Amino acid sequence: MAAMNSVHGNDNHTKILVVDDEANMRHMLSALLGDAGYCVDTSADGRAALELLETGTYDYIFCDIRMPSMDGMAFLEAAGSRLAETSVIMMSAYGTIDTAVEAMKKGAYDYISKPFKPDEILLALKKAEERESLKRENRALKFRLERIAQPRQFGEMIAESRSMQAVFELGKRVAQYDITVLITGQSGTGKELMARGIHTAGKRGGQPFIPVNCAGIPENLLESELFGHKKGAFTGADRDYKGLFEAASGGTLFLDEIGDLPMSLQVKLLRVLQDSQIRPVGTTRSKTVDTRIVAATSKDLAAQAEQGNFREDLFYRLNVMPIHLPPLVERSEDIASLVQFFIERYQARFEKKITGISARAMSLLMQHSWPGNVRELENVIERAVVLAEEPELDEDLFAGLGRPENKNSGLDAIAAGFSLKSGRQALEQVLIQKALAETGGNRTRAARLLEISHPSLLSKMKTYGIG
Ligand SMILES: Nc1ncnc2c1ncn2[C@@H]1O[C@H](COP(=O)(O)OP(=O)(O)OP(=O)(O)O)[C@@H](O)[C@H]1O
């Protein structure tokens, strides 16, 4: 039977085993740890310690390296998987440090050199406890990630939150009828994906779904792009062109950023909505189309209509069935499942094995305000998967998140490295944000300030998740 001496602390159920051939050391450590509230057992060598492991487990083991009968290294090897739930801290006297390092390679958690002060023991223990608690949190989180009740789906969208479940329900219902839908929500909340979902779930599902960004096409081209033109209608029109309404006939035309539709075209759109008639540029005859319209805006269309920047009659016609997508910050319940969803997408795309995300990293993601919404989260996970060197995404990969002052200034990012590419990107973000702030969010004027085209500004805003 192994020699065992137990000291039981009052309020701590953490079990520690001290293995040392020196009786003084055993007494000193068991008094120290016992006073600190731990349950402590002791044994005089590796063999006796192994016997104790037959009947019980320990959270931590302080193990001497040099012992006459079965030394620390031999004990580690013999105990093997019985130490799976135990952090072993080796105690190395002068001349055994190399062995201690070797022991760490074999699975010991840490080592401490003799002679040591009592504080050093308590500190080593605290460090090990912190690591253990993190490991536990990680395990719990992974478990949660794996067990998350299958997130609800709508088309290619997933969500957990009640607000999004309600949106999905509404989406499923309106999909069945050919009514016009207006999807509102900040940039990156998933408006286009929602529109696709509605299209796919309805009876037009097998027909074309054509997205068009009303803010991305210059005003003089937009009319012919949407309604088509006749050969010779204007310089460069060297053949008849069908236009997107006709191309989407039988299916759905998704008019994104409808708030940017020029006034001149708003009246024409109203006509299509009212009597399904389009008139290609350069013709006098109208054509009937069978195109479902789903529109989206990140702007307050009602306010725009009030200010006279959007036709009221068109607003009411579009707003028959509004669907609002809440910003991600208001539905943080969706973050964990979206993170898992994007990890799976990008680990497959980049052929990397990512098993999960650390609790600290997840907590950073939960605290961030996500001004670029789901698109920003997707970009952040994509980047993390690309850069990850370990199978678990850790917090370093998300440095800078949750600290909006750094994010806004962007200058830290520029100063942080030498890469011209990331420096340029960071600078672009700063300047775009500055220009938008300067113009009160007016993208046309911001593009002018930045001396780039409007579509190019929109595409950069999309890339950087600036909403
Ligand atoms: N609920 C969701 N589940 C999975 N992916 C999502 C979800 N919501 C958004 N995404 C993803 O986020 C990105 C942005 O979505 P989407 O383009 O639909 O947003 P948007 O609101 O139309 O943005 P914008 O107004 O800037 O055009 C896309 O890559 C999309 O796949």
Automatic annotation (TrEMBL):
**What taxonomic lineage is listed for the species of origin?**
Bacteria, Pseudomonadati, Thermodesulfobacteriota, Desulfobacteria, Desulfobacterales
Q: Which GO terms describe its biological process?
A: phosphorelay signal transduction system; phosphorus metabolic process; regulation of DNA-templated transcription
Q: Which PROSITE patterns match?
A: PLD, RESPONSE_REGULATORY, SIGMA54_INTERACT_1, SIGMA54_INTERACT_2, SIGMA54_INTERACT_3, SIGMA54_INTERACT_4
KW Transcription (keyword) present: yes
Q: Which residues carry this modification: 4-aspartylphosphate?
A: D64
Q: Name one GO molecular function term.
A: ATP binding
Q: Which residues form the Response regulatory domain?
A: 15-129
What is this protein's record name? Two-component system response regulator AtoC
The UniProt entry, under CDD domains, shows: AAA (cd00009)
Source organism per entry reads Desulfosalsimonas propionicica
